[in-house]
């Protein structure tokens, strides 16, 4: 079929199925012509002869092309098929029947899309649940691939609170992500919305874009990881941060789970407590220049450089120098209220943690 180049590319069994549909449609048309007073309802009979899987191999657009070609061929034969003087009536019946066939095809594909959408939703929920539970195996990866997940350079998780009036357009979000070259999985976890995104380029670009599509309220992001198999850690971090983000009313949107270590530690998150000790207390204790002592004294005297100098018998400029070294060592500036809160908690945990 030169008018349908896709037809030749189909495997032989599927070409046979298409031919069977055409033959059944023509047979139903002939049967209707013998009883023109009846309704030309070909929908169940014509498309039921082919397996459901054919709708995945032959698109709706291709089916419409097929209908157009078959109808065109029949119209060309009207003059030979119709009785003398009956050509106009037969032409009208061809048009009426082709309209019914087109409507029937649309119904078949709509039902297939609805069933496929419901199935995909169940599969996606299973993939998200596996990521939340930390049980990602070959089956999970295979299911993600069937949903259109394409491996990239990184994967990150976003968690957002769900409110009674909030809705996330998962289909639109996925379409926007696909347009940008990202793969997306969405689902519910811990009473919130969870989005797992993967792709290439800057992860922060994807995070910022997807955060805008999520419902109003806090959005917490987990750290980027290399692939979907490792995404369980990013998911866990994002959900842990979502549980604690209420403790920081001024948190930016989105906010990284690492920026919520203090709030998570207060809620008993052992991972956050360990990280605070490892990333703040231990580096300060190991650094030269009495940085731990200086930071602790600065916080204890009310964040005053002069008072810290008097307590440690140091010149204020020496205190300033050491506090700059603290920033270089741990990345937190204890002269800022937010950073001071995090460091204070980290020092408390470090003193209470046996080495």
Describe the structure.
The chain is an alpha+beta fold. The protein folds into 3 domains: 5-117; 140-263, Alpha-Beta Plaits (2-Layer Sandwich), CATH 3.30.70; 269-352, Arc Repressor Mutant, subunit A (Orthogonal Bundle). It contains 17 helices and 5 strands. The protein has a 5-stranded mixed sheet, with helices on both faces. Helix 11 links the parallel strand 4 and strand 5. Helix 7 packs across helix 11 (231-244), helix 13 packs across helix 17 (337-352) and helix 15 crosses helix 16 (316-330). The N and C termini lie far apart (78 Å).
How many strands, which pairing sense, and closed or not: the largest β-sheet? Answer: 5 strands, mixed
Number of domains as seen in the coordinates: 3
User: Could you tell me how far the N terminus lies from the C terminus, measured between alpha carbons in angstroms?
Assistant: 78 Å
Percent of residues in helices comes to 55-70%
In the CATH hierarchy, the third-tier topology of the largest domain is known as Alpha-Beta Plaits
CATH class of the largest domain: Alpha Beta
Shape descriptor reads rod-shaped
Q: Order of strands across the widest beta sheet?
A: 2-3-1-4-5
User: How much of the sequence is in beta strands?
Assistant: 5-15%
Mean pLDDT: 83
Number of helices: 17
CA radius of gyration is 33 Å
